[in-house]
Amino acid sequence: MRVKHPQARVNGILVQRMEKGLAEVILGYKRDPQVGPVVVLGVGGVLAEIYRDLALRLAPVTEEEASRMIEEVKGLAAIRGYRGLPRGDTAALARAVSAFSGLAHLERRVAEAEINPLIIKPEGEGVVAVDGLLILGEN
User: For position 137, what pLDDT does the model report?
Assistant: First the structure.
């Protein structure tokens, strides 16, 4: 690196464990000026932009409403045990959606936020946020 970019400074290195799961979702929100924070759940990873398979709700979202959002996303049928496939931890996903929507509802300084991908582990093993983004709004 020093040969090609002698002016470059390395302030640190981020190392994290590789994660595997049954599926990836995108979980996000955007503060709409007309209606307030809108929460989105959809198929995540690279497929998020291809399929646009999502569910939308106004924040805050209860765990029960988050479970209905999970049911609406067709691409998540696999984690619901479709055709004998292993079930994903949809309860943990519903808790994550609800908690994230609470941030959208309460934290007005954040204009947008996104986790993509949020990896869904097998039932009972939870979910893991791999990458996230927060965009602060104007105050």
Answer: 85
| Whole-number Cα distances in Å, 113 to 3, 17, 67, 91, 99 | 38, 23, 20, 22, 13
| Surface-to-core class of residue 80, CB atoms within 10 Å of its CB (0-12 exposed, 13-18 middle, 19+ buried) | middle
Q: What is the pLDDT of residues 99-130, one digit of tens each?
A: 999 998 888 888 999 999 999 999 999 999 99
What token pair was written down for 104?
A: 């959208």
How far is Cα 6 from Cα 21, in angstroms, rounded to an integer? 40
User: 15-40: string of b/e by CB count within 10 Å (b at 16+)?
Assistant: eeeeeebbbbbbbbbebeeeeebbbb
SS3 percent helix, strand, coil of the chain, rounded to 5, is: 30, 30, 40
- Global pTM reads 0.86
